[in-house]
Structure formats: structure tokens, C-alpha cells
Design goal:
Helices cover 53% and strands 6% of the residues. The chain has 32 helices and ten strands.
Length: 720
Amino acid sequence: MSQQLESQPDLLRLAPYLVGRSRRGVVGNSRYAKALREAVRQASGDGQRRPVLISGEPGLEKDNIAALIHFGSPDRQRLMVRLDGALLRPDGSDLFAPLAGEGSAPLLEVLAAGSLLIDKLDQVPEALQPALLELARTGRWQPRGLGAAADQAERIFLGRVFFTAEAAMPAFDRACTLIRVPPLRVRRQDLGEWLRYGVRQRSRKLGWERPPEVPEAVVKRLQSYDFPNNLRELEVLIYRALQQVRRQQEQDNGAAGAAAAPLPAALPEDVFWTSPRQQRLRFDIWRWKPQLREWMRAPWLWNGLLFGLVSWVFVLVNIWLWAGPQDRAHNGALNLFWAWWWPLILLGFPLVGRLWCSFCPFMVWGEISQRLARRMGWQPARWPRGNSDDWASPLLAAGFAAILLWEEVWNLQNTAWLSSCLLLLITAGAVVGSLRFEKRFWCRYLCPVGGMNGLFAKLSILELRAQVGTCSGSCSTYACFKGGPADGEGMATAGCPLGTHPAHLSDNRNCVLCLTCAQACPHRSVQLALRPPAADLQREMDPPVGEPGLLLVLAGDLCLHHWHRLLGWCPLSPETLVQGPLLPRLAFAALALAIPSALFLLARPFFSAPRLRRSLYGLLPLVWALLLARHLPTGMAEAGALLPVSLAPLVGASWAATLPAWRADLHVIAFCQSAAVLVGLVASVVLLRRLLQSSRVAWLGASALALVLAAAGRWLVTGA
């Protein structure tokens, strides 16, 4: 080292503050990372050695940027010291005065031509800031605390000065070369490289020769998190993830310990824990009624419902559809499907979310098939890791569009055996998916009905979540979603049927409220809470690629069902969609179904993609309300006739006419339809205010659009 110190006491004084090297370079290839690297390069090559102010949010390792500049410059052979600005004395004696009673020189004099880093400049006492500003501007400083007057003469600091700050410092901005370090949330493109770099560094410290890979699914999930403490928080996240992998190895190998355990080729998604978004206005149901928790998680309740009732009712319904009358006025199974199931499931979305999927008969037979296959030696593949939503969600939207076209063009509402074919086709998909993969891969990614349920479940007032702190600090088995034997009060389960950890849920889309996680958890981490409606829909949400397409398809169902009011004026339009040449019927049905998608595409050039997507999700309550209004006439006019319709083929029409039945008045039905549309409109306006809060003009415009769509939708569904 070329710089020589005058005495041993001087060396001892500098030792606690010395910066030996930079910790790391600038990681990433985003434009922000490249700009930051260029700023570091230019500052390192600055021949005038001008002072540098490095500003940015907490946790960005701004002191490391200063070290990069120093050790990348010709001054690399000189000393660099770092002082915490929050700990400096107001009189500046830390810098400008010698140690009392030792006869040593002030720190600046000892440092000579080295580099001085004042960290947290914004926390330096106000009385000291003018002296530091003068030091930055001219290099002049005034010794303090010396006895002889001659020693009080103004001196020049020959070294280079660095500052870091978290708040704005306008006076220093003008006196220094300013480098702004962007926060991690705007450098999401770099997150994968930061994660892999951190895993490599931490793995070496743990003695692992080959670090595990970080899957893209992990990167994508973490990219939706803002990292308030930036790189500091990211380092803690990586440290905890690898420690949990190590703990799992120790448990899997018992006395042999982690040393004998093979490292996982890729880190599982479940070991990466981020702080949850602040949840407000939550009411914990199980804390209010603890006994309700024990009753709801009882295995006999779910097993009896699924395998003792739902599975066989589904078989009987399909037999009824094939063997019974083929029109809805005489077949009770068709009445159940169109007059009961559709209105009730739509009414249930804001209350219980995706609960239907937990006892859906399609997947019950999928699970039965999987269990039988396992007994015969067939082993389904492990749950596929990776971002399956990217390719599955567009397929799901296309599948739902095909179902809607099938319903209208082939008149499934009044053709019982075709309705059964639809049910059996979806069941076949569930069975094939269950034989191919463990758990419910079909339900999570490919089931059209499940996609609709997951979309509208975002409106639910129920929320099942686990506490991140409890899971990350106390649990290493992950039985809540992996499955495993009983542990404490946790029961033996096969794990979450959708392969999701309850602490990693960002919305209700992948939660079917089956309570498997609550059964398996030994720490009472899982909570069932009431919350405000549509709490999942936030400005920072990251929905799957194809989910907006599914929302447009569902909106298209309204246009398809009332196609004649929209397209009946066309000379080429058929008289009806259920009779006549197939090609014109199919063409007009597809055209009607595509109307919302066409309007969305026309709006894209005039709005930014994020704002347009948020506006679309803001209309979700209105789409739900219009779909409910579309199915209410069938439910309110025909559901009450279930007994006469079901028993007429057996006991005769005259005797069946004496059975109890009810039918709502047409004016009551119209009133309920209008009320549903009004509720959806108000909810959408409120939700749009949340999603578009950064622009009042955008909110007013989107609200006006919602009003127009509500009026047009009411005209369609009520016929007035």
C-alpha cells in the first residue's frame, strides 16, 4: 500500500472505518443496470476526483457503489474509510479534531489523499452539514480542538469525498457528481440474475460445490413483489431460502445430516418467503368461533360429501340426461343444470369464491381414477414446475369460448344428451389430467369452468391464507401443499390439490377452500377471514397472460345469448342459431361472441397496456352482474318447478301439476335483473377508483364507459 501512516495510533484510529474492497459489482442487464455501470465507470475515470453523491432508497448498497468507484479508479492503492453520518458529532470532532490526549492528527489529516465516504448524509447533524458542503466544494476544512492558534489554520483535503443519502440533498447535488441508484422494483428484469448471483454466493458459504438452480417460476412470482428494503431484503430472502433447504435435508436424512443429502437440482418455490401485502379490514372467523375450525377441517365431512354423495349423484344425473326426456320442460336434470346451477354459482362467487371446485364432480372422478391407477402400479408424474399459466390460460379462454358456442349453436339448454356430453367431456379432461400428473393439474390450468371460478373468486369476501412469519419460522415440512403424515394437530393429507402454498397466495384464483392446508398445518397458521369484496384486485396485481381473454369471452356470452338484438338486422343473419345451415349459424355466433374482444382491441392504441388491463379488471363486477342478470329469468321462472318437471314422466302430467311449484312474476324478475346490474355498476366504479387512483381523468372516463356498458347490458338481458 503506497499510502504511509505517520504512527501506530493513526493506523489504529482508521482501522474501524477502513473499507477493504467492494462486495460485488452491478448485477443485471437491464437499461437501469447498464446506466448505473456506466455512471460508476465515468466516476472512476474522473481525473479531477470530483466528489460523488450516491442517492437512493434504503437497502441499495450505495456504500458498495462508492467502493466500486474508488477501487476502480487510480486511487485504488490509497485507503478508503467509511463513517456513518448518523453517528457523527455535531461539532465535527470525528473528522476535524485529533483524539483527546493522544497527540494524534485529525482523521482527515491522517487519511491524506485517500477517500472519505460519509454514509447517510441526510442523517448528519444539521450543524455539521455546512462544513461537509464546504469540504465537497473546495476541499477546505478547519481543524478543531487544537491548542496552538497556528494549528487552527485552514487546510486542504487532498483526497476524494463520497456521500450516500436516502433523501434529497439539493445543496450537495450541485456540488457533487450525482449518481441515482434505481430501486429493485423498477429493475424487475434484473431480479433473476440477482437471485442466481446471491444463491451462488451463499451456496459457497454453506460449502455446496454446485449451487441449485433458481426456476423461472420463482423469478416470476418474486417479480410481482416490490422489495421495500431492496437488496438488503433480497439477501435475507435468499439466506432464509437456503437455510430452509438445508433444514429439509437434515430432516430427510435424520442423523446423517445435510452433508449426506443430495442438493436439489432446483430450489422449490415454497422456500422463498416475501412479506405479505398489508391486509386491512380482516375478520378472523376461526378466532371468533374456534369450534367452527375443528368442524370445518374434519376429514369425514369432505370425504363423505365428495366420495359418498357427489360422485354417485353425478352418475345418476348423467343417466337421467341420457334416458329421460330431452327438453328442459320435462327433464329435471336439465332443470338442475340450467335453472339451479348457473344462477347459484354466480350468486356464490362474491360469498364463497371458488368453493364449488372443492366438491366439483369432474375432479372427484379424476381423483377416483388417480387412486385406482396408483393401486394398479401407475405413478402419475410430479406436479410440473414452471410457468404453465403462460400457455395454459389462453387455451382455457379458448376452451370456454368453444363451450359457449356449443351451448348456443347446438341448443344444449334443451338437448339433454348433449348437455351430458359436455359434462362427460370435461370429466374426461379431469381424468386424463389426473392420470398424467399428481393432484389437480387440470383444475388449476385447463378446466374452463375452473378458470371462470378462479376469475370471479377474486370478488369473494372469504379469504384463506397462512401467516408468512409462522410458516417461514416454524415449518419445514410444507405438508400443507406437499402432503405428508400427521404432525402434532396436523392431519395426514395429500397436500393442496392445486399445488399452492397458502402463504404464497396473492389472490383467490388458486384456492378452492377445500381446507386441506388447515387440516395439515400443525401450527394453526392457516386462517379463514372475512374481507372487503374484490380485495384481490389491486394496482400491482400480476394476472396470468390469458385471464383477461377469459374475461372478454365471458362478456361475449351476453352478446352471444342475445345475438339477434345485436346482429339480427344483418340481411345474411339466420333466423335462429339452432336451426338451418351450420356455417352461417356458427359464423354469426362467433361474431357475436367476439364483440367485446373486438372493442378491447380497438381501444388498445388509445391507452397504455397496464391502464387498459386495470380498467378491464375494474369491470369484473359489472360482467358478473350482467351474467347473473342473464341467468336470473331461467332460475326465477323454472327452478321452482323442479318437482313437477322431474316427476311428470313417472307419475303423469296431471298428478305432477298438483306438486308444489313457484314462479316469480315477470316484473319481479326484471326488477332483480336491474338491481343486479346496478350493484355491479356501483362496485365497478368503486373498484376502478382503486385501480386507476393515479389518474382522476382515467377513472372518470372508465366510469363513464362502465355506465354505458351497464345500460347496454341491461337493454340486452331485460329486453327493454
